Amino acid sequence: MPLIVRDAEPDDENSLTELMYEYIVGFYQKPRPADGKIHKLIQTLLEKQLGIQFVAEQDGKLVGFATLYFAFSTMKAEKITIMNDLYVVEPFRGTEVESELFLECQGYSKDQGYAYMSWITAPDNKRAQHFFEKMGGVQGDWVNYSIV
């Protein structure tokens, strides 16, 4: 069965929840958010007002997801997308699944009239950095900060 990349749908909630936990806890080794919080996030993204999620499906099973959040750029005075997540399960890393999810986010951003799509990755995630450079991404000039 061919690879299908599509908008997440309500029926994807359970499988998408499991993928998100693999991403958060398994890949980034962060604390597991409560199920209710993950489900609320998925429901918010299904509304497509604050963001959108795309899923990659192979043989009827979800094998990856990408999340875009909608924001604005003061510098451009236009709306932008932020690709907050691009996750593919281990056997599919380095395959077309990554590229197709990325291209779906990029195409959505262009088709919906966003000025640009931006994203960040961990400084030690060299594999992702190489992938993003291969896809035409350019490392920005800004230093990223956060606070709790």
UniProtKB/TrEMBL annotation:
- One Pfam entry for this protein is Acetyltransf_1
Q: Does the keyword Transferase apply?
A: yes
Segments forming domain N-acetyltransferase: 3-148
Q: Which UniProt keywords apply?
A: Acyltransferase, Transferase
Alphabetical list of InterPro entries matching this protein: Acyl_CoA_acyltransferase, Diverse_Substrate_AcTransf, GNAT_dom
Keyword presence, Acyltransferase: yes
- From the Swiss-Prot or TrEMBL record, give the protein name: GNAT family N-acetyltransferase
Organism of origin is Paenibacillus germinis
